[in-house]
Amino acid sequence: MEEKKTVQYKRTLRGSVGAGMSALMGGSGRRYYILEHRDASKYHKAGESQKIIIDQIELGRGQDCQVRFDETFETVSRRHAAIIRDGDRWKLVQLSTTNTTFLNGRAIDTEWYLQNGDEIQLAVGGPRLGFIVPEGNQSLVKSIKMTERLELFRKQALKPYKHAIAAMFAVLVVLSAGAAYVIRHQEVVIEQQGEEIQGLLAKTESQDILFEQARKKWVEDSTRIANELAKKPKVIIVNPEKDLVDAINLVKSSVYAVTTTVYIASDSETQKVSQSIGTGFILEDGRFVTARHCVEPWLFDSGQTQLAYALANSSNGVLRTYAVIQAINNKGNQIKFSNSDFIVDRSGDREFDIPYELNGQSVMLKGRLGFSSEASMGNDWAYATTSQKGSVKNGGANSTSLKAGTTAHLLGFPQGLGIGDGQSIVDPIYNKLSVTRDGLNESRCIMINQGVDHGNSGGPVFIQDGKKLLVVGIVSRGDIKSDLYNHIVPISNLK
């Protein structure tokens, strides 16, 4: 046995909920161990194997202990001992101040490293447990089936916080009385949005007729001017490529690489949940614009960020989620935001229940999505006011009436490219695409052909107007019906 003295043990959110979420998602290389119960008790049979997937567990007679023993074991304290992760190893920690813990028959005073095959005994004549580490790939958490991992997460990660969640459940029961009213209200809102969309489509058809008339006149005028110029001995040199390069260089410093870090926190502990990359840009009026899913990713994700939000949203104020958004441009200028700094449109949001079983009771966690219908996906935008003035010109007047075949120019950071992979610290990547349909689709979005990768989200989409670029949209998402197209939120959707 090898002793190691460190800082005093303290149960943390990171060691329970944080570690449990990592295990639930099958974290790469994450391992578990087994406690083999060698004595029968009210809660465990002799020979029972208990898999442990989190970084901290407590052993004792207390209700919050993940490894619990009944009152017949009088020499076992309420919080008798703990097993915690220390790097790649595990330690047995003495918690009780009145009753001894034995490791391989030897009393411990502070804490000792555990090895495969060790025997733990809580007090003289108390229950004995074997410490077993499976061999090879069988020791990886991902080798445990998802249904079993969910049950272990409930029993181990959430158990110390069951009182807070129980209080949340009581609040949800009271709130459920108003659910019917909320549902009917949402139906009315959706009907109103449908009428607005029909009006927008009618307006778009009218604009198409006017556009066609203007196009015919432009063709006639262009033909006439070309014929007149052909009669004159004059050489005209046009270099549209140089104009485009100059226009791109003008706006580059207003395009920022965005890193969004999501946290879940209590009053005493903060745990990092996820981190993602994206793009943002500053308009001439000082607004920093990006996609809403880069600011509030838990409203658009089906993984651990959504679970963290649902737990916090349903914890009656015990837990909370928030995001820190950091942006940097090619001149090294850095801006830091919180998700609460951004203006967003929540009119299309939808709440939904996530059923969760806790101690034999079904608890409904309150989840939330950033959209309730196809039409509300056009709300995937967010902006924050800054004191800086960008060089990106607002082309909102053009953003709802683009024609199929119009060339679109993108600047962003696909898959993180452009962030430290060249001579500059940050240099956005350029991509040229095409608009694939006239006007807006049913999502109130511009559709462009494939070529926008993760990391471009929130980035600007331009059209060229002579020697300048006009931003007409914000990169949003891929099309749910086909992987050949991408949706761009028109800049005119900002309110």
Topology of this structure?
Blueprint (H helix, E strand, L loop, with lengths): L12 H12 L8 E5 L11 E4 L3 E5 L6 E2 L12 E6 L2 E6 L6 E3 L2 E3 L2 E3 L5 E4 L5 E5 L13 H12 L4 H14 L3 H52 L9 H12 L3 E11 L4 E13 L4 E4 L13 H10 L6 E9 L5 E5 L11 E9 L2 E9 L12 E4 L7 E2 L12 E6 L16 E6 L11 E4 L10 E6 L2 E11 L6 E6 L5
Parallel strand pairs: 3-4, 20-25
Antiparallel strand pairs: 1-2, 1-11, 3-5, 5-6, 6-9, 7-8, 7-10, 10-11, 12-13, 12-15, 13-14, 14-19, 15-16, 17-18, 21-22, 21-24, 23-26, 24-25, 25-26
Helix pairs in contact: 1-2
Low-confidence stretches: 168-180, 234-238
Biggest beta sheet summary: 7 strands, mixed
CATH fold group of the largest domain:
Thrombin, subunit H
**Mean pLDDT over the full residue set:** 85
CATH architecture assignment of the largest domain: Beta Barrel
CATH class of the largest domain: Mainly Beta
Rounded to an integer in angstroms, the radius of gyration calculated over CA atoms is 30 Å
Strand content: 25-35%
The N- and C-terminal alpha carbons lie at a distance of: 66 Å
Strand elements, count: 26
Tally the structural domains. Answer: 2
Keywords:
495 residues; 2 domains; Tumour Suppressor Smad4; alpha+beta; Thrombin, subunit H
What this model shows, in words?
This protein is an alpha+beta fold. The protein has two domains: 13-157, Sandwich (Tumour Suppressor Smad4), CATH 2.60.200; 241-493, Thrombin, subunit H (Beta Barrel), CATH 2.40.10. It is 23% helix and 31% strand. The protein has six helices and 26 strands. The protein has helices at 13-24, 146-157, 162-175, 179-230, 240-251, 304-313; strands at 33-37, 49-52, 56-60, 67-68, 81-86, 89-94, 101-103, 106-108, 111-113, 119-122, 128-132, 255-265, 270-282, 287-290, 320-328, 334-338, 350-358, 361-369, 382-385, 393-394, 407-412, 429-434, 446-449, 460-465, 468-478, 485-490. Strand 24 and strand 25 (468-478) form a beta hairpin. Helix 1 runs antiparallel to helix 2. It is elongated.
